[in-house]
Specification:
Layout (H helix, E strand, L loop, with lengths): L1 H5 L17 E7 L2 E7 L11 H15 L6
């Protein structure tokens, strides 16, 4: 969805969980509306000190900053 909205292949896509590890932000345009799209890691339940935990923290930050969320 991210790649489709931004019109470029910027986000890695795979069926394997954990491929996306950071937040990727890009501006998208739909007709004459411009908006930022954020691709994030999954929403895994993990200890904050682990890599999955840090990935979740980045996802939580993106959620707090968002006006609209798609899962």
């Amino acid at each position: 969805l991210f790649n489709r909205l931004v019109g470029k292949k910027l986000a890695l896509v795979d069926d394997t969980p954990g491929v996306t590890r950071d937040r990727r932000v890009h501006t998208a345009k739909l007709y004459d509306l411009f908006f930022d799209v954020i691709d994030t890691a999954g929403f895994e339940d993990a200890a904050a000190s682990t890599l999955p935990g840090r990935m979740r923290q980045q996802t939580e930050i993106a959620i707090r900053e968002a006006d609209l969320i798609f899962f």
